[in-house]
């Protein structure tokens, strides 16, 4: 039996400039009935994913198989998304999302525009992130540069044009403190899927990508 709960609310003009925030929380609860006679052969939720992997994550279309390794075992998946939008309904570059499994944060996703950064390391510096570049693993995702660590991967896509004077958009996936993956390649692949989805959503007036 599958129970789904969807809550959403809109808050307009939160900054007085015609921008609001759309907050959506999706909770999927899966009730599994197990016959007593089969109990000895049924896998525990401690080492299996009882929930179904979503094809749309945080209101962004993703490849669920790319995200499969970063979702931990458990029963209940909850996704909370915050997508700012302007008065015309355009989708800007800013996006924040948190995925939790059984009440524990699995990972967060974000895309944030840059105002000055010309490249990935510039973006990390502009945002004030305290990651040791020397300890990172360089990679490519969605055709753009990525730097990855054991629990974090960050990518940057420059803007070729922007009516809002954005120089580019940075993208991040960050595992929760209690979630160990130990697979940088899987982390980068998930980030690449997220980048593909977000880049296709962002209105060109906010950022036009190459």
Features:
210 residues, mainly beta, two-stranded antiparallel sheet, 3 helices, 12 strands, globular, disordered N terminus
Strand segment tally: 12
Low-confidence stretches: 1-24, 26-45
| Main beta-sheet strand count, sense and barrel state | 10 strands, antiparallel
Strand coverage percent? 35-45%
For the CA atoms, what is the radius of gyration? 18 Å
Percent range of helical residues:
10-25%
* Average pLDDT taken over every residue: 80
**Principal-axis shape:** globular
How would you spell out the order of helices and strands? EEEEHEEEHEEEEHE
Straight-line distance between termini: 45 Å
Number of helices: 3
Number of domains: 1
Alpha-beta classification:
mainly beta
What does this structure look like?
This protein has one domain. The chain is built from three helices and twelve strands; from the N terminus they run ββββαβββαββββαβ. It has helices at residues 64-67, 120-127, 184-201, and strands at 2-11, 19-30, 56-57, 60-61, 77-86, 95-101, 104-114, 137-141, 144-148, 152-161, 168-175, 208-209. A hairpin with an 8-residue loop joins strand 5 (77-86) and strand 6 (95-101). The radius of gyration is 18 Å and the shape is globular. It is 14% helix and 40% strand. The longest helix is centred in the last third of the chain and has 18 residues, at 184-201. With 210 residues, the chain is mainly β. Strands 1, 2, 5, 6, 7, 8, 9, 10, 11 and 12 form a ten-stranded antiparallel beta sheet that branches. Strands 3-4 form a two-stranded antiparallel ribbon.
């Amino acid at each position: 039996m599958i129970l789904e709960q969807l809550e959403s609310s809109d808050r307009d003009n939160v900054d007085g400039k015609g921008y609001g925030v759309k907050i959506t929380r999706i909770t999927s609860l899966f009730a599994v009935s197990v016959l007593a006679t089969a109990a000895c052969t049924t896998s525990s939720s401690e080492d299996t994913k009882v929930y179904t992997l979503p094809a749309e994550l945080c209101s962004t279309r993703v490849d669920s198989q790319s995200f499969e390794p970063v979702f931990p075992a458990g029963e209940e998946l909850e996704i909370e998304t915050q997508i700012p939008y302007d008065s015309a309904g355009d989708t800007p570059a800013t996006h924040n999302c948190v995925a939790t499994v059984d009440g524990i944060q699995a990972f967060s996703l974000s895309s944030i525009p840059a105002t000055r950064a010309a490249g990935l390391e510039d973006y990390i510096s502009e945002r004030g992130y305290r990651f040791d570049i020397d300890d990172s693993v360089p990679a490519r995702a969605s055709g753009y540069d990525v730097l990855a660590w054991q629990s974090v991967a960050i990518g940057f896509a420059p803007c070729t044009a922007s009516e809002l004077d954005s120089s580019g958009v940075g993208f991040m996936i960050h595992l929760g403190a209690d979630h160990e993956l130990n697979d940088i390649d899987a982390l980068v692949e998930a980030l690449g899927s997220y980048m593909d989805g977000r880049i296709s959503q962002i209105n060109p007036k906010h950022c036009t990508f190459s």
